[in-house]
Structure formats: C-alpha cells, structure tokens
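name: query_chain
kind: protein
chains: 1
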Amino acid sequence: MKQDASYFEDKSPELIYIAKKLRDALRLESVLTEAGIDYGVEADEYRGGVVFTSVRTGAFFYVLTENLPAARETMLRNLFKPFEG
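structure:
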C-alpha cells in the first residue's frame, strides 16, 4: 500500500526500483499494493544514456528494510528487476 513520507520518518527506507516510464511506475504500484507491501514513491533525478548522458526524472520506489525480501520476491515474480545498490 502506498505510504506518504511521514511513514518513513526516523526509519531507513531501501530503494528497490527506479521507474523510468510512467506505465512501469503504475504497474509496480499495482503489483506492490496487490501483494500488501507498504511502499513509498517519489520523483527524483537520475543520469541516463550511454553516449549522450542526460539528467532524467523517474519514480523512485522505497520500502522499509523488513519488507525488502517480500518486495524483491514480488517484483521478480512480476518481471521487475529490483535495484541493486
């Protein structure tokens, strides 16, 4: 279930995915919500491109550390590649 920023206060959320397309962000929101996993999402910038790099905006998905294993398993089952940082 999508949570607001106050849910993550005084906790250390883990980045699990950077959605570069809106349809991927919407699909991941649906997948995590259906699985009952609490998550946060915010727009942020990342660098993209190989030859001509540029700054782009994506949807950054976060979960609490205790939800990380379930979130990764759910993502893999639904063909998302979890962020490895």
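note: The chain has two helices and three strands.
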